[in-house]
Design goal:
Length: 162
């Protein structure tokens, strides 16, 4: 399990590196999807320590929000400096193979998808955000078991023909 800031920083750095910067909104969704994918593919093992909250505009980790709120809805165009035990984290070097896989798969699936579409995905009927928001209300904690079960079903579901 990692800090949400560490995982978010990976997406920010990938965006800057590939000249495809993410916004705060897109970043929150990417971390949520990577966390869900990791839970589903790793027997419920969480990717991040912090819990997602059901905010009005989707699943949010407040720590990530606080760190990047200065960007508003503008693209985050500066690499994130991340340290582990007071040492700079060199890209993915400190992450497990399963964490790297979740981040890379999420990046490849979502990097060219706009934040509104990602928001629609996270707000889908019966999604973890939808269930929590309707049941608990705004700021309700989205349970990792709910996230895991949802992503397991999404992985098993065939992609509908267009």
């Amino acid at each position: 399990m990692y800090s949400s800031v560490l995982i978010a920083g990976q997406f920010v750095n990938l965006g800057v590196k590939e000249n495809n910067p993410v916004t705060q909104m897109k970043l929150q969704k990417m971390v949520f999807f990577a966390h869900g994918l990791h839970l589903a593919l790793n027997n419920g093992d969480p990717l991040i320590r912090e819990k997602f909250l059901a905010w009005k505009f989707g699943p949010v980790v407040p720590t990530i929000y606080q760190l990047y709120k200065k960007w508003g809805n503008s693209p985050i165009i500066e690499k994130t400096s991340i340290t582990v035990n007071s040492q700079p984290l060199a890209n993915f070097s400190e992450l497990s193979p399963s964490a790297i896989e979740a981040i890379n798969n999420t990046w490849e699936i979502t990097k060219d998808v706009d934040a509104i579409t990602l928001s629609n995905w996270s707000h889908a009927t019966n999604s973890p955000w939808d269930v929590t928001y309707k049941k608990v209300g705004e700021n309700g904690v989205i349970d990792d078991n709910l996230i895991r079960n949802y992503f397991e079903q999404q992985i098993k579901s065939p992609i509908p023909a267009v």
